[in-house]
Records
---
Amino acid sequence: AAGLRKGDGVGARGRAEIEALRLMCSRGLADCHALCRGLVVLPMRTERYREAGQAVLAVLQRWGLPVEKASYDDFYIDATALTSAAAAASDDTPRFEMEEVAAAEG
């Protein structure tokens, strides 16, 4: 998706200093319809996103690392342990497999 959201890492100060980001602003639905007369807004399929997010979370939690779910599809992982020499040398270093997530989604 274009634009930036909360949690994108830029922060308010970064947005204020970058002209393209400063010019972006959030708009209400009425403003969007006024600017784009043919706009069609579909309802979010929350259950689908919730299920997919839970599947991704389950895979991430198998690593045994601290995971924080910020939204349906945003996760914060403390991967510090993976960067240590001991973790890098270990044969059982967790590997993220996209196929696992796809299989869990069905």
Note: Residues 46-105 form one domain.
---
Amino acid sequence: CVTCRNAKKQAAADPVKLPILTPLEAQPVNVDKMSLAGNYAYRITFSDGHNTGLFTFDHLRELGEIIE
């Protein structure tokens, strides 16, 4: 998301600093909600508030194969 992208740019500008995580950022991220988006993807809402983007079935399958 835009917020995360901006944070990464700031961190890259000063790579010597170690980022300090907020308590919310230190928590594991869970899936709060999943809904179908057409016949090819899921729209996923995460516990950290991220809820944009579609996750295609093919992409999710690829991620699963990486874990195995």
Note: Helices lie at 2-13, 23-26, 57-67.
---
Amino acid sequence: MTETFSDAYDEKIRPLMDRIDQARSLLSSNVDGIKFPSVVVVGDQSS
């Protein structure tokens, strides 16, 4: 079976993004808070 980009995203990337959101919620409620990046660029570099 051929995996589509959407299938791969839902299976591999989305769970990681959900964990990051959970960590951000837990840690940002701290007074000092931990700053997470708002934008992340993932992929190969092209020149």
Note: The helical segments are 5-28.
